[in-house]
Design a protein that fits this description.
By secondary structure, the protein is α+β, with helices and mostly antiparallel strands. The protein folds into 2 domains: 133 residues, N-terminal domain of MutM-like DNA repair proteins, CATH 3.20.190; 127 residues, Helicase, Ruva Protein, domain 3. The chain is 20% helix and 22% strand. The protein has a 4-stranded antiparallel sheet. The protein starts with a helix and ends in a 29-residue tail after the last strand.
């Protein structure tokens, strides 16, 4: 599933549509039939990422107030592509869920195509405000002014909940997915299975500030990474059984929460199972083998 930084990068890429005139909207989905009829002749007011959700806002007039939005949640299978007319598509047209044709402010034509997204909806502004997912999202880590106090307060609603499970709940903090969860907890030397109530506010704030820092760092071109040494991109994610790059112990994976999300961790570095975190400078040089994680 894409994480918050991935959606912001998609919104940045689709930002060229902002202020453009909608020439047509094509979709095979019955729930988009009204959009197919009503979108042509409108204007793209904004392209907005909210956590792991994307909204393309449309207005009836140029520079007008947005009245409707194309809402997508990509999960594991979905993606947005941007094409110029006549260029080859990278996926079959049979997988297209939305084809939005826009003429931008400079007179250039674009095709924004959403492939394979399991959630595609045409919503009024009223429906967005009351949407069962969008209306319950927690503060966004990539918002212009991240509200860490509000995030901490939400995390503390259930003090018995495991830290690795809680920070994945988009109703508490919006934007963190499986990759960041495992990587951040490792880099902060925190036990993923420790109760939120056992963490003081300073610890939670440092974790959330680190999440924002790393997500913003990955908004540029290229693949996401939290590690740069020896060509490696991550510390623990998707490396179960491989040696930890800090202490050499085997990285492990355990599933957490009602959805059974995978958590990768180093028992020694993160103090899992009663072991003290490894803070010594003594380390073995080890070559980590195997494919780089997605």
């Amino acid at each position: 599933m894409p994480e918050g930084d991935s959606l912001y990068k998609i919104a940045q890429a689709l930002g060229c549509l902002r202020g453009g005139a909608v020439m047509s909207l094509v979709s095979p989905l019955p729930e988009m039939a009204d959009a197919v009829d009503r979108a042509p002749g409108t204007w793209v007011a904004e392209v907005e990422a909210r956590g792991k959700n994307l909204l393309i806002w449309l207005s009836a007039e140029a520079a007008g107030e947005p009245s409707h939005a194309i809402y997508t949640h990509l999960r594991m299978s979905g993606s947005w592509h941007l094409y110029r007319p006549g260029s080859d598509w990278r996926k079959p047209s049979s997988r297209a869920r939305v084809i939005l044709s826009v003429r931008d402010a400079d007179g250039r034509d674009w095709r924004a195509v959403c492939f394979n997204a399991p959630t595609v909806q045409w919503l009024t502004a009223f429906q967005v405000r009351r949407h069962p997912v969008l209306s319950t999202l927690g503060p966004d880590l990539l918002a212009d002014a991240a509200d860490f106090d509000a995030m901490i307060a939400r995390l503390r609603v259930d003090p018995r909940r495991a830290l690795g499970d809680a920070i994945m709940d988009q109703r508490l903090v919006a934007g963190i997915g499986n990759v960041y969860k495992s990587e951040l907890l490792f880099m902060q030397r925190l036990d993923p299975f420790r109760a939120v109530g056992d963490c003081d506010d300073g610890t939670l704030r440092r974790l959330l500030e680190s999440a924002r820092t790393w997500m913003r760092r990955n908004l540029g071109p290229g693949r996401r990474r939290t590690r740069w040494d020896h060509g490696r991109r991550t510390w623990v994610y998707d490396k179960s059984g491989q040696p930890c790059g800090k202490c050499g112990d085997a990285i492990r994976m355990r599933r957490q929460g009602d959805l059974g999300r995978s958590t990768y961790y180093c028992p020694r570095c993160q103090g899992v199972g009663g072991e003290a975190p490894e803070r010594e400078t003594r380390r073995r040089r080890l070559v980590v083998r195997g494919p780089a994680p997605d």
